[in-house]
C-alpha cells in the first residue's frame, strides 16, 4: 500500500511541475488533532500531531499531498523566475569539465563531466596523462532509472585490478558495496548491503574490511570480506555501546588497517598490519571520557592528532612496535589560540590544517628533521584546505583555496622546495567577474559578551539601507565550521542586490574548540542567542531591516531556525528551514530512532532530568506558542532517516495553528529524496532555484 502511495505522490509532483497554470490558490491544509500524552519526570507534553509520524497511513500521505498542492499553488507565480534562475546558474557551469588528475600507485585518476549528463565519469590513465583513457565507473549508468544516486567511495585494490564502490539509490545512507574487475570490466557477483560504502584493502588485494550499519544507521561493526570466498564474512570488531560510531580505513602508506570508534567526546583506535589480514587488531590507547585521538602512519611511527592535555589538539607520535600512550612524544605542541583540524602523513612530511580567528593555515612538518613551516599563500585567503592527496611517497601536496568572491583554485605545493604551482582555477562562465564583488567581516556581541564573526559578500557599489535584502545563514552544531567558500549559484542573488551573510555561531569551531563546546549540550542556547545577536547587529548597523532580513538553515541549522523563530520572530521577514531537526526532545527520548543514541554527546541524554528540561526549554516544536510568526518555508524528505519527514510536517502544522499573524507557513515534502538535495548536478539547480525564488518573492524581487 505505501509503495502505491509514494508512486501516487511522485506522479502528482510530476504533473504539478508540468502544469501550466492554477486558477486559484486553495486553502491551506489543516491537520487533524489527536492528542497524544508524552510523560517523563512527571512532566506531560501533549502532542496533537503525533499521528503524522505513522508513515504507512493513507491519511498521512493524503495530508502531505495536500501540503504539496498548497505550496505549489502559492509558488506557481514564481515558475518563470525559477526557470530564469536555473538558466542563469547552468550558464555559469561548464557542461564538459575535468578535475585535476591525482596520481596514486602508478595511475592518474580524474573525473570528467560531459555536456547534458547529470553525474561524473570516473577515469584513469596508467603512468601518464598521455596514456589511453580507462573509464572505471560511469555514474550516469549506475544512476539510470533512479531519481537519486550517491556513490560513497571508490576504493582501488593495491594491485590496481579491482575496484570497490558504495551505492545508495534511495537517500537513506545505507550503501551497497559492489566489486568490479577492472581488467575485464565486469562486476563480481557478490555485493555487501547496509554499509558505509567504503572499504579498506589489504596488501594482497584479496581481503577488504568494511563497516556495517545497523537498523539505527549507526556504523557499528567491522567485517572482513574475502573476494575469493565472498559468502562467509568474518566479524572482527563490534561496538556494543550504542553511542559510538565505528569506521575502518587503510593508512596512506597502505601498511596498516585502522579501526576507529568515537562518540564525539572519546575515541579508541585499533591497528592491524595490512600484510597479515587474518591477524588480530591491537588496541592503541583505551578510551577515556574526554580523550579523543585519530591516527595515521609514516615509516617507523604512528602519528596522533589528540586533545590529550590539549583542548585545541596537538600532534604526537609513537613507534609502531609499541604505540601505547606512555610512548607518545610531542612533535606539534598545543596552542590555546590555534585549533588543529586535520593531519595527513606522507613518507617524508606531515601536513596539518589549523584554524586561528576563523581563518585557516596549512603547516608542513619534515618528519626527519621536525622542521616546520607554513605554506605562504601570498595573500589573505579566507579558506585553504587539503585537496585529494592519496599518494604516500611524494613531496607534492595539493590544496584548495577560495573566498566568498573568488572561485576555488587547486594548487600543487612542493613540500621540499616550497614552490607553489597553480594547477586549475574553477571556471565560472556567463560573464562572471570577481572584481565586481567584495566581502568583509564584522563582529557581533553576544548576550554574554562573546564576539561572533559575521562574513558578508555583496556586489560592489551597493548602498546599504533598511531596504537592502539580506540573507543570513547559520548552522552551529557538531563542531562543523561554515567555510567562506565561493558558490557560483549565489551570484544569482548577489546580482539582484542581495547581501549574503554567514553567522559563525557557537556550536561550530571557527574560533577554536571552545567555540564548539560553548554551543552544545547544556550550552546549546548560545547558538540561538548568537544568531539573534548577529541579526540585531546587521539591522543596527544599517545593512538591512527586519522587513528585508531572511534567515536560512538546514538540518541542525533548521533547529537553529526553529529556535530563533520562537525567540525573536520579529527580527525576520521570512525563515527558510530545510530538513529541520525540530522535535528534539521526542526524538532524543526514542532510542529506537536512527542516530538518537550517537547524538547524546551533542544534545544531551534526556533520560537525565537536567538534560530533559533543558532540551525541552529550546526544542522548537515544544516551544511553539501563540504569537506572530514570520513567513516560513519548511522542507522535508520522505526518505530522510536522519531528520524523519514527520518532524518538519508536525512543526508546520503546529506553527500554523498557533500563528496569530497573517504570515504564510509553507511546507514541501519531496517524496523521492532523503536528507540531501537531488544528487544530479543539474537537478540540484532546480532545488536551489525553488529556494531562491521563494526568497526573492519575499523581498519583492520579481525579475
UniProtKB/TrEMBL annotation:
Keyword hit for DNA-binding: no
PANTHER family on file: PROLYL ENDOPEPTIDASE-LIKE (PTHR11757:SF19), PROTEASE FAMILY S9A OLIGOPEPTIDASE (PTHR11757)
Taxonomic lineage of the native organism: Bacteria, Pseudomonadati, Bacteroidota, Bacteroidia, Bacteroidales
Domain Peptidase S9 prolyl oligopeptidase catalytic: 486-700
GO biological process, one term: proteolysis
Function noted in UniProt: Cleaves peptide bonds on the C-terminal side of prolyl residues within peptides that are up to approximately 30 amino acids long. Has an absolute requirement for an X-Pro bond in the trans configuration immediately preceding the Pro-Y scissible bond.
Protein name listed in UniProt: Proline-specific endopeptidase
Any single Pfam family the record assigns to this protein: Peptidase_S9_N
Top-level taxon in the UniProt lineage: Bacteria
Keywords: Hydrolase, Protease, Serine protease
Keyword Ribosomal protein applies: no
Family: Belongs to the peptidase S9A family.
Gene Ontology MF terms: serine-type endopeptidase activity
Span of domain Peptidase S9A N-terminal: 29-425
Amino acid at each position: 500500500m505505501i509503495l502505491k502511495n509514494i508512486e501516487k505522490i511522485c506522479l502528482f509532483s510530476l504533473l504539478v511541475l508540468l502544469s501550466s497554470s492554477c486558477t486559484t490558490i486553495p486553502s491551506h491544509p489543516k491537520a487533524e488533532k489527536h492528542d497524544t500524552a508524552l510523560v517523563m519526570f512527571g512532566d506531560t507534553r501533549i502532542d496533537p500531531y503525533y499521528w503524522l509520524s505513522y508513515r504507512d497511513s493513507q491519511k498521512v500521505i493524503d495530508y502531505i499531498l495536500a501540503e504539496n498542492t498548497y505550496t505549489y499553488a502559492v509558488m506557481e507565480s514564481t515558475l518563470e523566475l525559477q526557470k530564469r534562475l536555473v538558466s542563469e546558474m547552468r550558464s555559469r557551469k561548464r557542461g564538459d569539465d575535468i578535475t585535476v588528475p591525482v596520481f596514486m600507485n602508478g595511475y592518474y585518476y580524474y573525473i570528467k563531466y560531459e555536456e547534458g549528463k547529470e553525474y561524473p565519469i570516473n577515469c584513469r590513465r596508467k603512468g601518464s596523462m598521455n596514456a589511453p583513457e580507462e573509464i572505471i565507473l560511469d555514474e550516469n549508468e549506475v544512476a539510470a532509472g533512479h531519481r537519486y544516486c550517491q556513490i560513497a567511495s571508490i576504493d582501488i585494490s593495491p594491485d590496481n585490478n579491482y575496484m570497490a564502490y558504495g551505492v545508495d539509490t534511495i537517500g537513506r545512507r545505507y550503501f551497497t558495496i559492489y566489486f568490479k574487475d577492472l581488467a575485464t570490466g565486469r562486476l563480481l557477483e557478490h555485493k555487501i548491503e547496509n554499509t558505509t560504502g567504503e572499504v579498506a584493502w589489504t596488501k594482497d588485494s584479496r581481503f577488504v574490511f568494511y563497516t556495517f550499519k545497523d537498523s539505527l544507521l549507526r556504523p557499528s561493526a567491522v567485517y572482513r570480506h574475502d573476494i575469493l570466498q565472498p559468502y562467509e564474512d568474518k566479524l572482527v570488531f563490534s561496538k556494543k555501546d550504542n553511542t559510538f560510531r565505528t569506521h575502518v580505513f587503510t593508512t596512506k602508506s597502505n601498511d596498516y588497517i585502522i579501526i576507529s570508534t568515537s562518540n564525539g567526546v572519546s575515541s579508541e583506535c585499533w591497528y592491524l598490519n595490512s600484510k597479515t589480514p587474518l591477524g588480530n587488531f591491537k588496541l592503541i590507547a583505551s578510551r577515556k571520557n574526554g580523550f579523543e585521538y585519530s591516527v595515521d602512519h609514516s615509516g617507523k611511527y604512528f602519528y596522533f592528532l589528540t586533545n590529550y592535555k590539549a583542548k585545541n589538539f596537538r600532534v604526537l607520535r609513537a613507534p609502531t612496535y609499541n604505540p601505547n600512550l606512555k610512548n607518545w612524544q610531542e612533535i606539534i605542541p598545543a596552542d590555546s589560540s590555534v585549533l588543529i583540524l586535520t593531519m595527513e602523513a606522507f613518507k617524508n612530511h606531515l601536513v596539518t590544517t589549523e584554524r586561528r580567528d576563523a581563518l585557516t593555515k596549512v603547516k608542513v612538518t619534515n618528519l626527519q628533521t621536525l622542521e616546520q613551516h607554513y605554506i605562504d599563500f601570498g595573500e589573505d585567503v579566507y579558506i585553504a584546505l587539503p585537496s585529494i592527496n592519496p599518494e604516500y611517497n611524494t613531496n607534492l601536496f595539493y590544496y584548495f583555496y577560495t573566498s566568498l568572491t573568488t572561485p576555488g583554485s587547486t594548487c600543487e605545493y612542493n613540500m621540499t622546495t616550497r614552490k607553489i604551482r597553480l594547477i586549475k582555477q574553477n571556471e565560472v562562465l556567463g560573464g562572471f567577474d570577481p572584481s565586481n564583488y567584495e566581502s568583509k567581516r564584522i563582529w557581533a556581541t553576544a548576550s554574554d559578551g562573546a564576539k561572533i564573526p559575521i562574513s558578508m559578500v555583496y556586489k560592489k557599489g551597493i548602498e546599504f539601507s533598511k531596504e537592502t535584502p539580506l540573507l543570513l545563514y547559520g548552522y552551529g552544531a557538531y563542531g562543523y565550521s561554515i567555510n567562506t567558500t565561493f558558490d557560483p549559484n549565489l551570484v544569482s542573488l548577489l546580482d539582484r542586490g542581495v547581501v549574503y551573510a554567514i553567522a559563525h555561531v557557537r556550536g561550530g569551531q571557527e574560533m577554536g574548540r571552545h567555540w564548539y563546546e560553548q554551543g552544545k549540550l547544556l550550552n546549546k542556547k548560545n547558538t540561538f542567542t548568537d544568531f539573534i545577536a548577529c541579526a540585531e547587529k546587521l539591522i543596527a548597523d544599517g545593512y538591512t531591516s527586519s522587513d528585508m532580513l531572511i534567515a536560512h538553515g538546514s538540518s541542525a541549522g533548521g533547529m537553529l531556525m526553529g529556535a530563533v523563530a520562537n525567540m525573536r520572530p520579529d527580527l525576520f521577514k521570512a525563515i527558510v528551514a530545510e530538513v529541520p531537526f525540530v522535535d528534539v526532545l521526542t526524538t532524543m527520548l526514542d532510542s529506537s530512532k536512527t542516530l538518537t543514541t550517537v547524538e547524546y554527546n551533542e544534545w544531551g541524554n534526556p533520560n537525565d532530568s537536567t538534560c530533559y528540561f533543558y532540551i525541552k526549554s529550546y526544542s522548537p516544536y515544544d516551544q511553539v506558542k501563540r504569537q506572530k510568526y514570520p513567513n516560513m518555508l519548511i522542507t522535508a524528505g520522505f526518505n530522510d532517516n536522519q531528520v524523519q519527514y514527520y518532524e518538519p510536517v508536525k512543526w508546520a502544522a503546529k506553527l500554523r495553528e498557533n500563528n496569530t499573524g497573517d504570515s504564510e507557513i509553507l511546507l514541501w515534502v519531496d517524496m523521492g529524496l532523503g536528507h540531501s538535495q537531488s544528487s544530479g548536478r543539474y537537478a540540484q539547480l532546480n532545488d536551489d532555484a525553488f529556494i531562491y525564488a521563494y526568497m526573492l518573492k519575499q523581498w519583492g524581487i520579481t525579475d
